């Protein structure tokens, strides 16, 4: 048993790399998360982890915004305090045409705002012309979807993959489709409003004329769809409202601490926001996922310890953790999963490689401490709530 465990640890080991010079931006909602660069783009940069992911698969592997033929200048970008929105502020470089300065640097202010809701990434791109004369703005967005399993993104290679189609245009929508070896059909649907002047299988381009002080806004959605499931088809405004209401309903169950130190209060608020981002709704209640990007999934030990530490803040989190882990408690011996009757889950994964057992983590029980910690949490929850 110990030899098998050591072999698994070596096979699926994640090298810790110094990435202090690379800062990514992360959003998460339910089973969907996204990793962007500071510009709001998705490229093969950093550790190559950028992308829009859903249920263990990368549904968008390229998203590159260009003004003319170049990327705009980055002013700043930040994830908002509540972790719902990613906001990027950009401006234009000097734009020349036939040797003549067409748009001086800093004339345009560009704001990109993103949020995730129900397996869809919503983005708005807002332009403001601060110049005194009209300008013609040409911008484009490049798209790509590799449908890589999360463990492929982490560096594992596979002997075989399913069938991936190139981008297809249907009814003013761009589709990327992948039929996996697990028999699951995964689709990325991209929509633009207003429609672009040119839509191809790899991008969209727009030409707009902006008068002095004029503003213009563009809406894009990137939806992750599996088999017969379709995206909710919401507007950005509705998705924004739903996300805020869901977060406020969850926060309303918590108790709060406030001190005389504003700096300490800010630390408490930041910690609370980060935890709420990781709380994920399941049929048994909320479960704190372990971390984005590599561990955005239920882990037994991580979920139990988080629930224990959070018990005085909101015991409903412990109830969700206990219900989820009890439902997946091992019922029979399975050496490949390190499962024995009564053991509590170490980790579970979704995605093609887990479904095909190319990795053992569809349901994996190789944890020495999740089972006693589960008993500890059950006792602490009962002492706290008498439920």
Explain what the structure shows.
- The chain has 387 residues and is α+β, with helices and mostly antiparallel strands.
- The protein folds into two domains: 220 residues, Beta-galactosidase, Chain A, domain 5, CATH 2.70.98; 131 residues, no CATH class.
- The strands form five sheets. Strands 6, 7, 10, 11, 13, 14, 15, 16 and 19 form a nine-stranded antiparallel sheet that branches. Strands 1-2-3-4 form a four-stranded antiparallel sheet, with no helix packed on it.
- Helix 5 packs parallel to helix 8.
- The longest helix is centred in the last third of the chain and has 17 residues.
- It is globular.
- The chain starts with a helix and ends with a helix.
Write the layout of secondary structure elements.
Layout: H1 2-11, E1 25-29, E2 32-36, E3 51-54, E4 57-60, E5 62-67, E6 73-79, E7 86-91, E8 95-97, E9 100-103, E10 108-117, E11 120-129, E12 135-144, H2 150-153, E13 163-164, E14 168-170, E15 173-179, E16 185-193, E17 198-200, E18 203-210, E19 215-226, H3 236-251, H4 262-278, E20 279-282, E21 285-288, H5 300-309, H6 315-327, H7 352-355, H8 370-385
Antiparallel strand pairs: 1-2, 2-3, 3-4, 5-12, 6-7, 7-10, 8-9, 10-11, 11-19, 12-18, 13-15, 14-15, 15-16, 16-19, 17-18, 20-21
Category from helices, strands and their pairing: alpha+beta
Q: Identify the overall geometry.
A: globular
* CATH topology group of the largest domain: Beta-galactosidase, Chain A, domain 5
How would you name the CATH homologous superfamily of the largest domain? Answer: Glycoside hydrolase, family 65, N-terminal domain
Number of DSSP helical runs: 8
Q: Look at the structure and give the CATH class of the largest domain.
A: Mainly Beta
Report helical residue fraction: 10-25%
Number of strands: 21
Taken in chain order, the helices and strands follow as HEEEEEEEEEEEEHEEEEEEEHHEEHHHH
State mean pLDDT (0 to 100 scale).
91
Radius of gyration: 23 Å
Strand content: 25-35%
Q: Give start-end ranges of low-pLDDT stretches.
A: 12-21
Main sheet overview: 9 strands, antiparallel
Euclidean distance between termini CA atoms: 37 Å
CATH architecture of the largest domain: Distorted Sandwich
- Give the domain tally: 2
């Amino acid at each position: 048993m110990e030899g098998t465990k050591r072999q698994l640890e070596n096979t699926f080991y994640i090298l810790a790399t110094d990435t202090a010079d690379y800062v990514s931006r992360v959003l998460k909602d339910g089973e969907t998360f996204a990793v962007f660069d500071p510009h709001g783009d998705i490229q093969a940069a950093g550790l190559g982890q950028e992308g829009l992911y859903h249920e263990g698969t990368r549904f968008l592997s390229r998203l590159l915004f260009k003004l003319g033929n170049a990327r705009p200048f980055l002013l700043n970008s930040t994830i908002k305090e509540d972790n719902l929105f990613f906001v990027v502020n950009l401006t234009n470089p000097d734009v020349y045409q036939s040797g003549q300065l067409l748009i001086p640097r800093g004339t345009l202010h560009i704001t990109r705002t993103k949020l995730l809701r129900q397996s869809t990434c919503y983005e708005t791109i807002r332009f403001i012309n601060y110049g005194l004369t009209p300008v013609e703005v040409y911008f484009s967005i490049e798209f790509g979807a590799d449908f890589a399993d999360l463990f492929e993104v982490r560096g594992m290679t596979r002997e075989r993959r399913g069938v991936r189609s190139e981008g297809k245009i249907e009814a003013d929508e761009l589709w990327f489709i992948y039929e996996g070896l697990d028999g699951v059909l995964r689709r990325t649907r991209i929509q633009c409003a207003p429609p672009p002047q040119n839509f191809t299988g790899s991008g969209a381009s727009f030409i707009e004329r902006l008068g002095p002080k004029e503003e213009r806004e563009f809406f894009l959605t990137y939806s992750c769809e599996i088999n017969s499931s379709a995206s909710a088809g919401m507007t950005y405004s509705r998705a924004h409202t739903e996300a805020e209401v869901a977060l406020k309903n969850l926060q309303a169950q918590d108790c709060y601490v406030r001190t005389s130190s504003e700096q300490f209060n800010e630390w408490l608020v930041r910690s609370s926001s980060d935890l709420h981002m990781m709380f994920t709704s399941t049929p048994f209640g909320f479960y704190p996922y372990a971390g984005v990007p590599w561990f955005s999934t239920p882990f037994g030990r991580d979920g139990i310890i988080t629930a224990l530490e959070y018990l005085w803040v909101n015991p409903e989190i412990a109830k969700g953790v206990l219900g989820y882990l009890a439902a997946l408690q091992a019922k029979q011996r399975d050496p490949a999963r390190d499962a024995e009757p009564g053991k509590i889950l170490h980790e579970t994964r979704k995605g093609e490689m887990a479904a095909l057992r190319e990795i053992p983590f569809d349901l994996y029980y190789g944890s020495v401490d999740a089972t006693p910690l589960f008993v500890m949490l059950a006792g602490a929850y009962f002492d706290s709530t008498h439920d």
